[in-house]
Amino acid sequence: MIRSIIIACAAFVPQALSQQSKYAEPSVPTGVPIPGNYSGALRPQVHFSPPKDFMNDPNGMFVDANGTYHLYYQYNPTSTTAGNQHWGHATSQDLYHWINQPIAIFPPNENSNIYSGSAIVDVNNTSGFFPHQNNGVVAIYTINTPTSQTQALSYSTDGGYTFQSYPGNPVLSDNSSQFRDPKVSWYAPTQQWVMVVSYAQALTIGFFTSDNLKEWQHVSNFSHHGLLGDQYECPNLVEIPMEGQTEPMYVLAVSINPGAPIGGSITQYFPGSFNGTVFTPVDGAARISDFGKDNYAGQFFYGIPGDQNQISLAWTSNWQYSQVVPTGPLEGWRSSMSLPRVNYLKNITRVGYDLVSAPYDLSAVTDATALIDKSMGNGSVDVSYSTVSSGALYFQINITNIPVVNITGTANFTFRSSRSGESLRAGYFLAPDSAFFIDRGNVKGFDNPFFTDKFSTSCPYNPSASSLSWSVEGVIDRSILEVFINGGESSATVSFFPEQALDTIEITSSGLNPGVRVNAAVYGLNSAWASLEDASGIVTGNITDYQA
Ligand SMILES: *[C@@H]1O[C@H](CO)[C@@H](O)[C@H](O)[C@H]1NC(C)=O
Ligand SMILES: *[C@@H]1O[C@H](CO)[C@@H](O)[C@H](O)[C@H]1NC(C)=O
Ligand SMILES: *[C@@H]1O[C@H](CO)[C@@H](O)[C@H](O)[C@H]1NC(C)=O
Ligand SMILES: *[C@@H]1O[C@H](CO)[C@@H](O)[C@H](O)[C@H]1NC(C)=O
Ligand SMILES: *[C@@H]1O[C@H](CO)[C@@H](O)[C@H](O)[C@H]1NC(C)=O
Ligand SMILES: *[C@@H]1O[C@H](CO)[C@@H](O)[C@H](O)[C@H]1NC(C)=O
Ligand SMILES: *[C@@H]1O[C@H](CO)[C@@H](O)[C@H](O)[C@H]1NC(C)=O
Ligand SMILES: *[C@@H]1O[C@H](CO)[C@@H](O)[C@H](O)[C@H]1NC(C)=O
Ligand SMILES: *[C@@H]1O[C@H](CO)[C@@H](O)[C@H](O)[C@H]1NC(C)=O
Ligand SMILES: *[C@@H]1O[C@H](CO)[C@@H](O)[C@H](O)[C@H]1NC(C)=O
Ligand SMILES: *[C@@H]1O[C@H](CO)[C@@H](O)[C@H](O)[C@H]1NC(C)=O
Ligand SMILES: *[C@@H]1O[C@H](CO)[C@@H](O)[C@H](O)[C@H]1NC(C)=O
Fold first, then answer.
1. 40 Cβ inside 6 Å of ligand 1
2. Please, which residues have CB within 8 angstroms of residue 545's CB and are 6 or more apart in sequence?
3. What residue range is the signal peptide (predicted)?
4. What are the tens digits of pLDDT across the range 456-492?
5. Structural domain total, the chain
6. Is 461 found in the same domain as 315?
């Protein structure tokens, strides 16, 4: 789902039968993973990024019956800019250690691209593709041509590693060049598949249902809600728990690009209810999933029951600058995914419904020994982490025992490069407004008019409490900072590109009321990629040997 160049009055070209075939450019390997060098100074070590070249949206995310997470992604294997889109593929048991697999889905012909979409496990063979198995995987995605966007299927009998395209493609057309990003889920009460798909420039999400994934009926539209921007993209509909309530609810997420309030791309979401055909939001509010600038096109894994916390990943970039960031010329790759996030709904002060987004269990990559473990009032702690070879840290700062009136003080954390003096800083003003900021303006490796420097959010206190508390936790990973406030009630994803590695963390607080405690802990993270390198330092990936 790239913003296509729109050719005025373009004629609709019906999809040819040749779509059954698969087109692989000679330079794009089939059947083998693409090797990657994950050692560059800007390469995230606990985040997923592609072995080389350009990646954008997460696609087709599902968890299989063995608990293996499958991530597909928008992938151009021939350039560090977008275009020539395929579905790359990686698998993981813990959402941090990823095995690069061969490219999963290729375009049907030279004039087409595979754009974003989703995948499901057809346990009941509703599609008829899977005569002898209950673990067949169907991918539902957009085929983009210069004049059309249509929805198509590919199916996999080997658990999602290799796919065949369905000869009856496309399965859904609208005579449009702006109709994309189908996300399909199973709605058990009506025993039907439900697709949400974007009529991008009509600012409308279409809802369709199907018994067999091949024939789709339009059942409703969700149009002009919340923030409009210039296009709606990558809708997601997911059943999700609401804290303190037994009945799960639904969230409809809609990505906007371009036209986000702080520029470029962003994701908004609507809590609500869904009855199999119509989604009804709880209120008229627009809620944004992230207050940074690098969190787009998030997708929820298929296969997690609706009464359990959902898990998502998003693309850690922004279309305003994703194709010009310096990782391309310096290291031959562009873009990574966010940390895996645990999501559920919660009633927070004033807002009523909030999508909590917290880091998924980091224990698979966290060092046992803390670099910093400190309890202080007003004070400061300053530690070099140049000994942490990944350059990646997990940190927590809890501020407790804050009085309910006459609150004062600030608490900051800064990551600095001892070599260049560059810094990435963030801080919390307890008063007057309980507000948090991030400033990437003193990181010097990338300059671009749209690469906004500063982000902030407010974090209102719970007025009924007898004393107040506040917390932030987060991960810094070479060129990505993610922060989670108050357990993930608000979160921010921020990319940054230092000239020299950041290697020092300083945490300071001052002006706090007497009795206020600042508890800080910082842990090194172990590279999830270094453990997969061969003797020459290259991550070769794997062809999972699948036994059906
Ligand atoms: C991997 O990239 C690093 C940094 O860009 C470079 O120094 C190293 O030589 C590369 N390794 C291989 C095997 O190409
Ligand atoms: C799956 O569907 C196909 C096509 O309808 C059918 O031939 C096959 O018998 C089905 N298999 C099972 C186990 O239901
Ligand atoms: C398809 O769209 C084109 C361009 O908007 C229009 O000229 C044509 O009449 C449409 N065809 C159908 C079958 O609606
Ligand atoms: C599969 O069939 C069972 C039994 O009819 C039903 O409860 C379940 O919802 C179906 N699930 C899917 C994904 O088709
Ligand atoms: C749904 O929205 C699309 C895009 O605006 C439009 O073409 C279609 O007619 C709408 N369907 C209905 C039933 O309103
Ligand atoms: C869902 O709600 C809509 C609007 O209230 C209604 O028209 C529709 O019939 C309902 N669908 C089902 C399956 O209950
Ligand atoms: C959220 O909590 C407030 C305060 O307890 C309450 O007034 C409000 O009704 C709750 N909202 C929801 C959506 O549960
Ligand atoms: C808060 O500040 C005001 C003005 O300085 C003062 O009069 C009041 O006593 C303070 N309240 C508390 C609980 O400290
Ligand atoms: C935190 O940063 C803000 C903004 O620069 C500054 O006003 C404040 O004094 C700093 N606080 C500490 C404890 O360094
Ligand atoms: C911060 O608070 C969380 C949640 O209560 C707790 O698990 C964590 O250990 C605390 N961290 C520190 C450094 O005190
Ligand atoms: C690659 O796959 C083989 C066979 O499935 C397995 O034994 C091996 O551990 C895998 N390697 C990695 C790095 O996952
Ligand atoms: C789960 O793993 C077993 C053993 O390796 C394998 O036979 C089976 O096909 C796998 N199932 C899925 C859904 O991947």
1. yes
2. none
3. 1-18
4. 999 888 777 889 999 999 999 999 999 999 999 999 9
5. 2
6. no
Q: Is residue 57 annotated as part of the catalytic site, yes or no?
A: yes
The domain boundary, picked from 302, 334, 357, lies at 357
> Helix count (H) and strand count (E) of the chain?
1, 34
Burial 38-61 (b: 16+ CB within 10 A, else e): beebbbbbbbbbbbbbbbbbbbbb
Same domain, 287 and 432: no
Each residue's pLDDT tens digit, 510-543: 999 999 999 999 999 999 999 999 999 999 999 8
Residue 11 pLDDT class (50, 70, 90 cuts): very low
Lookup: tokens for 424? 């990435």
Which DSSP state fits 286? -
pLDDT interval class at 546 (50, 70, 90) = low
Contact 264, 318 (CB under 8 A): yes
Q: Is residue 434 part of a domain?
A: yes
Mutate which of 6, 12, 177 for ligand 3 pocket (most atoms within 8 A of beta carbon)? 12
- Pocket of ligand 11 from Cβ distances under 6 Å: 99, 532, 542, 544-545
- Could you tell me if the CB of 204 is within 6 A of ligand 5? yes
Residues with a CB atom less than 6 Å from ligand 3 = 12, 175
Give the distance (Å) from ligand 6 centre to CA of residue 219. Answer: 9
| CA atoms within 13 A of residue 123's CA, in its CB half-sphere | 10
pLDDT of residue 277: 98
Would you state the structure tokens that stand for residue 237, as one six-digit string? Answer: 């509909």
Distance CA 363, CA 401 (A): 28
- Ligand 10 centroid to residue 395 C-alpha, Å: 10
Residues 452, 342 share a domain: no
Cβ of residue 380 lying under 6 Å from some atom of ligand 10? no
Active site residue: 53, 57, 181, 294, which one?
57
Residue 521: inside a domain: yes
**Rounded CA separation 462/349 (Å):** 6
CA of 330, closest atom in ligand 1: 5
Q: How confident is the model at residue 454 (pLDDT cuts 50, 70, 90)?
A: very high
| pLDDT tens for each residue of 259-292 | 999 999 999 999 999 999 999 999 999 999 999 9
- Measured in degrees and rounded to the nearest 5, phi and psi for residue 267 equal -115, 130
From CA 310, how far away is CA 239, in angstroms rounded?
8
Over 18-69, what HEC string results? HHHCCCCCCCCCCCCCCCECCCCCCCCCCCCCCCCEEEEEEEEEEECCCCCE
Domain range for 160: 5-29+48-357
SS3 417: coil
